[in-house]
Design brief:
mainly alpha; about 75% helix; 11 helices
Length: about 260
């Protein structure tokens, strides 16, 4: 449990330091000239680049402190096409279905969508949002926290839920936290099945990449918002349940011998 707390605190610290660095860069000229009466909020691009550096540094620190495995892709479990394709597609359908179900509620995002819109024009920010960010989160919340909780005696299913709950909390806004709770739990199950971040990492990267693509096609989001409410809920429920069925049919289990996928290394 203590290791999980350290990992989570390092993740939060990385976010705070990255934000502070971005503010420092944005206001460098004013600070040098002594005009500190009104400091500016960092732009999305500067914040994104700062977060990119922070994520990479965090993974390096976790690795050097041995809070995560030095070789997280040991491939202890052999995965066939069924174990790759079904859970990946199922996870994407499930998350997209949940998105449709939550659209009518209009959860508050605290300006995160506007922030992402401002980042989409920069290749480094896209690299952060689509690849580095999701992989770092899988290293932190699955390879780090989930695995540590299992080693401390928590069942894999309970550890997957706890890591997903923490994953939701750090998003700090309802529009992201609710999907993050569900997605984080599914990512945890994928991690348990593979015993590394192969499945959950790929699913997370693809999910973020599809979300980024929607930012470049706002008409698609507008179409979903304008969709008839009943149809929206029916399609959303169909995709959500269908995605869950695909994950289940992939042979993923968190019972029995799957617990043995977590020996100390």
């Amino acid at each position: 449990m203590f290791r999980s707390i350290i990992i989570l605190n390092l993740f939060v610290l990385m976010s705070v330091v990255s934000l502070g660095l971005a503010r420092l860069i944005e206001n460098a000229d004013d600070l040098v000239s002594g005009h500190t009466e009104e400091l500016h909020t960092p732009s999305g691009v500067i914040l994104g680049i700062s977060m990119l550096a922070g994520n990479l540094m965090l993974v390096l620190v976790l690795w050097m402190m041995k809070l995560v495995r030095r070789y997280p892709l040991r491939r202890n479990v052999s995965l066939g096409m069924k174990q790759w394709l079904l859970p990946t597609v199922g996870t994407l359908l499930l998350i997209f279905g949940l998105h449709l179900l939550l659209l009518p509620i209009g959860l508050e995002d605290n300006g995160q969508m506007d922030l992402f819109q401002s980042m989409k024009s920069n290749v480094l920010c896209i690299f952060l949002l689509c690849i580095v960010g999701p992989l770092t989160e899988e290293v932190v919340f699955r390879e780090g926290i989930l695995r540590s909780l299992v080693h401390r005696g928590l069942s894999p299913l309970s550890a997957a839920f706890v890591s997903a709950l923490l994953f939701a909390v750090v998003h700090a806004n309802w529009a992201q936290a609710v999907p993050a709770l569900v997605a984080g739990f599914v990512f945890g199950i994928l991690y348990i099945r593979a015993d590394d971040i192969r499945l959950c990492g790929v699913a997370h990267v693809l999910n973020n990449t599809l979300a980024m693509l929607l930012l470049f096609f706002p008409a698609a989001e507008s179409y979903m918002v304008a969709m008839n409410l009943a149809l929206q809920l029916i399609v959303g429920a169909f995709l959500f349940i269908g995605g869950g069925v695909l994950v289940y049919c992939s042979g993923i289990s968190v019972r029995g011998e799957k617990i043995l996928l977590f020996p100390e290394k």
